Amino acid sequence: MSQHTPIRIELSRGARVWLFAALLAAAAGIPCCAQANSSASPAVLDRAVAVVNKHVILASDLDDEIRLSVLDANDVPQRELTRQQALDQIISRTLIEQQIRQEDMPAIEPSPEEVNARLHEIRTELPVCVRQNCASDEGWKVFLAAHGLTAERVEAYLRYRLEILRFIEQRFRQGIQISPQQIESYYHDTLLPEYTPGETIPPLDQVAPRIQEILLQQQVDLLFDNWLTNLRQQGDVELLDSELAPQTAPATQTPSTSNTRESGSQ
């Protein structure tokens, strides 16, 4: 009797968790089952598509990831995730979650106030939500129904996403020092060239805090990318659906600093 043979794959580095990002929340405990009828072929209700260190990823997890991607702000026109992209994000996030549990870092879970604040931002600032009047209760209900979501699922997603963000901050941000020389160099070499002749240029002392934050984030990005690459290389990842094999290595996106002028000059 022939059986499906798992395909071992070498997956590329995923986008940063907090930008897709990243940074995007996993579905927890979705049941999977197949019902067989004695007089008919089995009706498969869900199926495994990958295994990450013995953690099974289901086809329904990919569907959930694609639905939730509407909540992620993007500078480019909204494009629905492909199933390959959804799987890649879930694999990265699963490895991160397993590491969080392994390290047992304290004070990871966000407070209800933090979750509510993030939910408020989405309902009032996310472009797709603004267009559909999500700030109102009726508009929010219509939005959720249109995208196959529930309020409970969105809140769980945001809670998990904030948990990952907290982990990244604790794991990689501590100990990073940005020198005055680095801030001054960024100001002269990166920020000033963005201004055209005649524009009012903010003084260094005014934008220094924003530049420091950008440089800190860049350092966190680099440390996190290297850590996640090693995590994926060391992890046991099996792809069970050959149609989900990555065709090309996804490009690594770096955080945009195009908003430096706006944020720093305010």
Brief digest:
This protein is of the alpha+beta class and 266 residues long. It has nine helices and six strands. The strands form two sheets. A four-stranded antiparallel sheet has the order 1-6-4-5.
What is the secondary structure topology, with strand pairs?
Blueprint lengths: L6 E2 L25 E2 L7 E2 L3 E5 L2 E4 H10 L14 H21 L8 H14 L1 H5 L5 H10 L4 H23 L6 H12 L12 H31 L2 E3 L20 H5 L2
Find the count of extended strands (DSSP E, 2+ residues): 6
Main β-sheet description:
4 strands, antiparallel
Number of helices: 9
Which strand order does the major sheet show?
1-6-4-5
In terms of DSSP E residues, the strand content is 5-15%
Determine the mean pLDDT. Answer: 77
- Under the CATH scheme, which architecture would be assigned? Orthogonal Bundle
Question: So, the CATH homologous superfamily?
Answer: Porin chaperone SurA, peptide-binding domain
Tell me, what's the shape? globular
Number of domains: 1
Instruction: List the uncertain runs.
Output: 1-39, 249-266
The CATH class turns out to be: Mainly Alpha
In N-to-C order, the SSE pattern is EEEEEHHHHHHHHEH
**Considering DSSP H and I runs of 4 or more, what fraction of the residues is helical?**
40-55%
Q: Please give the alpha-carbon distance between the first and last residues.
A: 69 Å
What structural category do the secondary elements indicate?
alpha+beta
Fold-level CATH name: Triger factor/SurA peptide-binding fold
Structure write-up:
The chain is 49% helix and 7% strand. It has helices at residues 59-68, 83-103, 112-125, 127-131, 137-146, 151-173, 180-191, 204-234, 260-264; strands at residues 7-8, 34-35, 43-44, 48-52, 55-58, 237-239. By secondary structure, it is of the alpha+beta class. The protein has one domain (7-193, 202-254): Porin chaperone SurA, peptide-binding domain (Triger factor/SurA peptide-binding fold), CATH 1.10.4030.10.
